[in-house]
Structures are given as structure tokens and as C-alpha cells.
Amino acid sequence: MSERAMTADDERLRIALWQCEPRPGAPGENLDRLDAAAADAARRGADLIVTPEMVVPGYDIGAVRARELADPPDGPIADRVRVIAARHRIAVLYGCAELDPDGSVYNAIRLVDAEGIGSATHHKTHLFGDLDRRMVASGSARPPVVEVAGWRFGLLTCYEVEFPELVRSLALRGADVVCVPTANMIEYDVVQDVLVRARAVESQVFVAYANYCGSENELIYGGRSEIVAPTGDVIAVADRAPDLVVAELDRATLVESRRRFPYLEDRLPDLYT
Length: 273
Fold this sequence. Notes:
Elements: E1 12-19, H1 27-43, E2 48-50, H2 62-69, H3 76-88, E3 91-99, E4 105-112, E5 118-123, H4 129-133, E6 145-148, E7 151-155, H5 164-172, E8 177-181, H6 190-203, E9 206-210, E10 215-216, E11 219-220, E12 226-228, E13 234-237, E14 243-250, H7 251-260, H8 263-266
Parallel strand pairs: 1-2, 2-3, 7-8, 8-9
Antiparallel strand pairs: 1-14, 3-4, 4-5, 6-7, 9-12, 10-11, 12-13
Helix pairs in contact: 1-3, 5-6
């Protein structure tokens, strides 16, 4: 984390969640759509836009197509998103398939800051069912915590937020906000109804959860992207349709909530193993 002093601008942060229908196998079209969404979010004062999981290639595309559409760490997709972020002066957290130098393909999320500089990449570690396991390799590195716009972001992908240990570990490493690109199906609405809100309260972080809507092959996505405060209050939520929801996060809310619910401070970790 940077050692610079906080400024008044650091006390508030505006996050946009881009809830969209998937366009599988159409990375060019999806990057054009991301460009338009980023421009809209920037006009609305957002500091960061969060996309769904694997938004560039599509999620349910299979192993062969995932490999064909996988982008190297400094590949053309990364270059295009850096241009988008810098042009609109907005940080972008987006999902893609990533081709590792060792030949592995990962379900990746990448954070690019408002100057177009790549800040972090996370490879999904907790794979969901056969769909994930047949398509990509499992990441092995712990999820990153990175500073953008004076706030500390922890990065998770979809299924990972359903594991309280992962969110708690990010909070203990200094995360203020946990951002979650996801591809959650409509039959798992309990994640938005219960788990995302529980994660926010029990680990005392904001959680920004960006989902698909519509359908892709046999999958029907649930939408209902949401931003939840550490108090458990839902401060922004989409319905089932495409949307761009924007909410302002206030550091004072985080500080006061952590005072009221001192779970991080009162932990007794020696009892939990």
C-alpha cells in the first residue's frame, strides 16, 4: 500500500457494475461493448467499472474455444482494455481467458487503473463444477489486494466469494472493498440474497458483485448485481435485465461499521484451527 496521506477525494469512491448479456465467442464485439459501458460509467462519475466473469470471450465456451480466445498477459485484449481505461479515465476490472507462458489457460480477472496501467491479475482458484474444470486450469496464487484511487481492493471470481475464508483473508490483508466478477445462474439467487451480504458483514468490507443476465447455451443467468456495505445494507442493485448500476462508497461508513462490528479486531484465530 502506498504511504501517501489520504485526501478528501479518497474518502468516497464510485463503483459501476456492468450487468450485461453474454456474447460468447465474440471478443471484438465484447470489447466494443466494454468501451461504451466504460464511457457511460465515467460520465456518471465512476472511479471503477466491474464486469462479469469472462466477459471478453464469454463464459460457457468450452476448453477448445477458451484456448483459442485466451489472451497472453500482455496480449491484444490487455492492450485494448488499457486504452479504454486511459481514454475514459476510469479503472476497469474485467474477466477474460488468459494464456500462461507455460501453456495453461486460466479464468482470469485483470485490474487496469485509470491511467491504463495494469495493476493486478487473479486466476480463479476455486473452480465451479465440470464446466470450469474441463475448460481452465485452477489458479494457485492467493487473491491479490491492490490500491486504486486511495482504496484497497481485494479481487475474487464468482464461486470464490462463497468461501468465507477467502473474503476474510482479503480483509485481514487490508481490503476495503472486495470486487467479484461473476457468472451466477438464476437457480443460485441465494448467493446474492444471503452469501454476498454475509461476506460483507462478517469480514467488514464493501462487496461489489457484477453478474451476467440473459442466457448462454443452457445457462440462464440471474443478474441482480449488487454492491453491499459492511453494514449489510444493499446500496445498489440491478434487476434481471442489462443495466449499469453506480453507487458511492463512503469511507466513514466503513470506519463506523468496523467500530460497531469489531469482528476483525476480536478474532481469536488460535481457536479456529
